[in-house]
Amino acid sequence: MVSIQSKWRYLFMFLGIQLVVMALLSREGYQKRVTYFIRIFRKPDASGFSGRNHSAAGINGGDVYANLSHLSKAHIHADEMPYCPKKSPFVRGPIHVSFPSGLTLAQVQKKNPLVVRGGRYRPPDCEARHRTAIIIPHRHREHHLKFLLYYLHPFLQRQQLSYGIYVIHQAGNYTFNRAKLMNVGFREAMREEDWDCLFFHDVDLIPEDDRNTYVCDANPKHAAIAMDKFGYKLPYKMYFGGVSALSPLHYLKMNGFPNNYWGWGGEDDDIGIRVSLAGMYISRPSLKVGRYKMIKHKLDKGNDVNPKRFNMLAKTRQTWKLDGMNTAEYEIISRQYLPLYTNITVFIGTEAGLHAAPPPPLKPAGKAEAEPAAKPVAEVPANIQAKGPAEPAAKLKEGPSEE
Ligand code: BGN
């Protein structure tokens, strides 16, 4: 017969084994499953917000618009305005992100009644502690931009920021240059307002947790640390792609971003190297908070893999002071203050310079071989030389999904 004492012993052993298994599971990739079970047994959060945001925030994330109607009710005179609290009461944590096919820009506009011309916003009932500009390099990605705007506006409002959204649209068909567009965005945004932080943001990345605050740290911040496409982990230690945040001081200290990475890849690594060459560190939010969902898409036309990136990266130490913000040449074609963002269309030239004939196209490498090669423009487009209203700028098309 088993004595009572040995029954206890078995029970303790059983519990002990369970604890060890739980601890092992919670290390590495199993955290999600364990927290899922923990949440089932935890009491629901008792903090005043209701609706879907309240019940679903734990597992799938809440509706990013859930509590924003509170904002429009305040009517305070500007001179009586207190500073916003250090921690916004509207921040709720995980956000549910999906991509419904019927979304229109008009709907996004209607859901954001406090956003004004040019995609600007300030909290209606308190003085924001931070002024953040969002810089989005763009071409042919109207469909993604629509979703980004749908999520980003309420996301930033929840954080009680004063903010502006800038879309930097590359004119013409020559190979895309993400980093140079960022340089344009930096200069043009700073020309308009004394922003204290700039978020350099890919158009297809949607933040999934509003505790990922869009304010700058003491060092340049890499915000998109956990993307779904990389299994919500950093793909490699020095990764600096997707979404990053720099103060104007950080930006100038590292001479901005390189202007000569045409096509896909490497420019973000160059920027990461610049951070350390300029004597700074990369700061990051936690993996739990710096989560992003990428809108799925095929490789872009006009953004073939850049075969020169390895050689260029090997030389960053020699080139970062010679190429960057101090040498960024471009021509602004138009600046439109649209209801949800400021649209800056810019001509950034080609590898040969702003107005020189471009070099013959290189054979694209890797995956891009399957894609039609980017067609370089034979010369600077006539409409751009004339500095006219040029090609239609990145005005969003309404309507169903293009993919
Ligand atoms: C890296 C790319 C980055 C890109 C990430 C994630 C290069 C340079 C060669 C070492 N870097 O490999 O630009 O953001 O993958 O996709 O290709």
TrEMBL record:
Positions of the Galactosyltransferase N-terminal domain: 84-217
Highest taxon of the lineage: Eukaryota
Gene: LOC103363677
GO biological process per UniProt: carbohydrate metabolic process
Keyword Disulfide bond attributed: yes
Cofactor: Mn(2+)
GO CC annotations on file: Golgi cisterna membrane; Golgi membrane
Leader peptide range in chain numbering: none
Every Galactosyltransferase C-terminal domain range: 222-298
Lineage: Eukaryota, Metazoa, Chordata, Craniata, Vertebrata
Cell location: Golgi apparatus membrane
Matching PANTHER family: BETA-1,4-GALACTOSYLTRANSFERASE
Chain intervals for the UniProt region annotation (Disordered): 358-403
Cited function: Responsible for the synthesis of complex-type N-linked oligosaccharides in many glycoproteins as well as the carbohydrate moieties of glycolipids.
Pathway in which the depicted protein is active: Protein modification; protein glycosylation
Keywords: Disulfide bond, Glycoprotein, Glycosyltransferase, Golgi apparatus, Manganese, Membrane, Metal-binding, Signal-anchor, Transferase, Transmembrane, Transmembrane helix
Compositional bias of kind Basic and acidic residues: 394-403
Assigned EC number: 2.4.1.-
Comp. bias regions, Low complexity: 373-382
GO molecular function, one term: N-acetyllactosamine synthase activity
Protein name per UniProt: Beta-1,4-galactosyltransferase
UniProt-listed InterPro entries: Galactosyl_T, Galactosyl_T_C, Galactosyl_T_N, Nucleotide-diphossugar_trans
Reactions mediated catalytically: N-acetyl-D-glucosamine + UDP-alpha-D-galactose = beta-D-galactosyl-(1->4)-N-acetyl-D-glucosamine + UDP + H(+)
UniProt similarity note: Belongs to the glycosyltransferase 7 family.
Membrane topology, from the record: Single-pass type II membrane protein
